[in-house]
């Protein structure tokens, strides 16, 4: 028999073994009482089993028979391994830490269409293998399509490989998506003519009702990358877009709202699980966090997660991890040193907040990357790279995130 394996951290007034059994029963063939409707052979086929308990760590391992799952149905998968258990009265805290899937199950998913190699081919970095530099257009909402396209042009001319919408920008009246897309793609065509470089634009198609139509309209309108907020729209949104054969562009995945699930170490769903499901669903790039940015983190988990996304997984293509949130040129070195070269390093405020504007901000990011790639200390490199020197002047101090938020930066 094949199983999906799930690991949980559990806090309960019940002994750990008993609490694990309560979870296994609730999430498979049982409920709070024996029921007369249950065939006598059902448990042998479909009951989840507690296969390990670690009293010291407070964790348990539960095996779910594969037959309990519908093929390629992530909502049903989550309802099983991450459903009612979070609210059961006797289980005070529970966190789904990790999942392991049999090959036969994982291979039914499409996975990423491009992966790291495919995206590198589009951008032309397959030979040097350097990290990509991206930017999030700021302010995150409020610019009109022309203003947005102008910012995109400046960022691309400054050296960004990727321009992206922010997670809250979709199709609001002040910046309709079709006008925004055509404005930006026109500017990126000019960048191509002027510099020969292909710059990707992750166009945010996140929506509840018509995400596939939005994706189709975007690709017809020239989009070279789509963006989806996975947790607000659901993993099925990625699957639905990935399933459309005609949509031959990579999918950039933002994880906004993840903190509600991931941040509490004692309750919720670990980012590792979200990463695995995103890869199954077909995301080509995924925000996984940073070593030095504004979002809270566990570096150990981040490294392991990025390694998973970049490594083998039942024959599915890999995923380009994205480091984003509070990044500026001085963060490039720690990000690359800890997370490696297969990384998209994104800065919003850290580019558009440069004292000399967006072009200079993008240049400073590229200069920081060039310094790291050529193993030259940042301050040394900055001596004849004025944009980097100006960024060091602004962000070079040792200030905490609380101080930055309190006093500005
Ligand atoms: C993101 O999409 O990761 C954030 O909007 C990053 O913005 P920031 O670089 O200004 O923190």
List the helices and strands and how they pair.
Blueprint: E1 3-12, H1 16-26, H2 42-46, E2 49-54, E3 59-65, H3 74-81, E4 91-100, H4 103-106, H5 115-123, E5 132-136, H6 145-158, E6 162-164, H7 177-195, E7 200-204, H8 211-220, E8 225-229, H9 230-233, H10 235-242, E9 251-254, H11 258-262, E10 268-269, H12 271-281, E11 285-287, H13 299-310, E12 320-324, H14 332-339, E13 344-347, H15 349-352, H16 358-373, H17 378-382, H18 386-395, H19 401-407
Parallel strand pairs: 4-10, 5-6, 5-13, 6-7, 7-8, 8-9, 9-11, 11-12, 12-13
Antiparallel strand pairs: 1-3, 1-4, 2-3
Helix pairs in contact: 6-7, 6-16, 10-12, 12-13, 16-18
The structure holds 3-phosphoglyceric acid (3PG).
Task: Report on this structure.
The chain has helices at 16-26, 42-46, 74-81, 103-106, 115-123, 145-158, 177-195, 211-220, 230-233, 235-242, 258-262, 271-281, 299-310, 332-339, 349-352, 358-373, 378-382, 386-395, 401-407, and strands at residues 3-12, 49-54, 59-65, 91-100, 132-136, 162-164, 200-204, 225-229, 251-254, 268-269, 285-287, 320-324, 344-347. 42% of the residues lie in helices and 17% in strands. The strands form 2 sheets. Strands 5-6-7-8-9-11-12-13 form an 8-stranded parallel beta barrel, surrounded by 7 helices. The relative contact order is 0.12. Strand 6, helix 7 (177-195) and strand 7 (200-204) form a beta-alpha-beta unit. It is globular. It has 2 domains: 3-106, Alpha-Beta Plaits; 115-397, TIM Barrel (Alpha-Beta Barrel). The chain has 409 residues and is an alpha/beta fold. Bound molecules: 3-phosphoglyceric acid.
